[in-house]
Amino acid sequence: MLLQQFLEDSARKFPRKTALVYENRRLNYAELDAGSNRLAHLLKECGVKRGGRVAIFLENSPEAVISIFGALKADAVFVILSPQLKPRKLGYIIENCGAGVIVSDAQKLSAAAATLAGLPGLRTVICADGFGRAALSGGLQFLAWNESFSMPAVRPPCANINLDLAAIIYTSGSTGSPKGVMLTHLNMTSAAESIAAYLESVPGDVIINLLPLSFDYGLYQVLICFKAGATLVLERSFAWPYSVVKRIIDEGVTGFPGVPTIFALLFQMKNLDRYDFSSLRYVTSTGANLPVKHIRRLREIFPAAKIYSMYGLTECKRVSYLPPGDIDRKPESIGRGMPNQELWIVDEQGRRVGPGVIGELVVRGSHVMKGYWSDPEATSRALRPGPHDGERVLYTGDLFRMDEEGYLYFVSRMDDMIKTRGERVSPREVENALHEMEGVAEAAVVPVSDGVLGNAIKAFIVPRPGYALDRKDLVSHCRSLLEDFAVPRYFEIRESLPRSGSGKIDKPALQQSQGDQGGQIRVADLGRTHAAPPNKQDVPGKDGKENQGDHGAGAPGG
After folding, report:
1. 234, 247 in Cβ contact below 8 A?
2. Over the stretch 250-297, which tens digit does the pLDDT of each residue have?
3. How many whole angstroms separate alpha carbon 284 and alpha carbon 259?
4. CB within 8 A of 67, min separation 6: which ones?
5. Burial class of residue 550 in the structure, from the number of CB atoms within 10 Å of its CB (0-12 exposed, 13-18 middle, 19+ buried)
């Protein structure tokens, strides 16, 4: 089966059924299918070949969904990008994957015009809101979205098989450069089918999605929904919680996928007990550990809903889920393996270990990625020989232990990636951005405990002699180079940073130093010179407010 058949099959069975609700728009399955067919013809007409990459740089919207399936129907590979990307990273990803076409909107195209004009492989820009021609240069072909309206509504001929690539999803790498996770049609249909099986998805489901489609957890809500012939209620974010709650009630939502950050924000709302959430059949959580206190509160707010605590990573989409019936018995576990996969834990020598022993989690199944785009070295580290000749299995880079019944317990990541607001952030990327600021001599980034975010990002900075570092300037500089979720929430100025025996910055010592405060981080002004006493001077971003951006959550790995 090919991924686009989820939409095509449901369009055949339920042509007039509402498939997608977005703001005041309602599209049925026939309309979505016809729209993606038209876009596929347009993509082919502008030169997209089998296996060609189509970049999608849009907020959550019907156009983003149509672009995904339009690319698939053109035998192409879709590369869906975070709408928060800054031009530099946008340019890196498009050049890295060799995308010949980008679908975006006028505002984003205008902001990234200079970057796009300098990409040698990019040929065509499709503007989803029909404007932006004047902002483009460099000989790029401009196509307005409505140019697809004149194309045939029938499906173009299909050449792909399920071993061909369907998507490249970029996730932050420990080196600071994003890595493109290559997923075949088989990988993605296998993952979606297994998830739909344990969620018991049915055509009567109405799933709300607050997560960005660039976050694979958000993307798979579309796939699972269309596979079942259900209805997807698509939101841009959780920026307006009460309007989202109203939408849940008005649409009779049955499925609510979230991350701990979204739930923490939900818990801050008042008078939730006055709302009728009886339509909710299930609530799912991934992206970070779901705290036990979150589980209890979710049970109070949504008494009729099953609660699924889950774990996954972009390289295989989903690994495990905790059956709702076990959530009281093993609330700290992220469950057992999902259907149609095998998993085990190994020690540093690659030997399988027994219950209670901490080791690296290994995953085997048809949902495991093909590899990292143009990165054979990283691919060989993650995909290694499996138990049967000729196969490769995924070494996740995450440390777990397993109990006697086969339930998994997350321990830590083997690398130093920071998971905050559901996103994986490379400390090196943040440090590189800080080092570009004049006046910064050294910078080190670590996670700190946060009641809402789970983990927040803290930057330790040593100024260059004679420089004063202003809080607003630090935040502004970071926001000019990083996505909102990657901007440090806290900054601490120091005269020096601790070193290990090898001369490297001792990050465990930095984490221990802030941990001594019992998780309570003192807020103080940062506008002092390097000559100031080396007191701990922690300041939050955005003038003391939490750095939520548009999403409140979202990003790879779930």
Report:
1. no
2. 999 999 999 888 888 898 898 898 999 999 999 999 976 788 888 989
3. 8
4. 39, 54, 56, 58, 78, 103, 128
5. middle
210 contacts: CB under 8 Å, gap ≥ 6: 218, 235, 237, 238, 244, 257, 258, 262, 552, 553
Which H or E run contains 414? none
Could you tell me the CA-to-CA distances from 504 to 179, 345, 478, 497, 508 in Å, in that order?
25, 30, 24, 10, 11
Distance CA 258, CA 261 (A): 8
CB 286 within 8 A of CB 316: no
Query: Tell me: the pLDDT tens digits for 24-44?
Result: 999 999 999 999 999 999 999
CA atoms within 13 A on the CB side of 299: 14
Neighbours of 348 (CB within 10 A): 7
User: Could you write out the DSSP letters of every residue in 89-129?
Assistant: HHHHHHHHHT-SEEEE-HHHHHHTHHHHHT-TT--EEEETT
Nearest to 242 by CA among 268, 207, 279: 268
Q: How far apart are CA 110 and CA 100, in angstroms?
A: 18
Distance from C-alpha of 452 to C-alpha of 454, rounded to nearest angstrom: 6
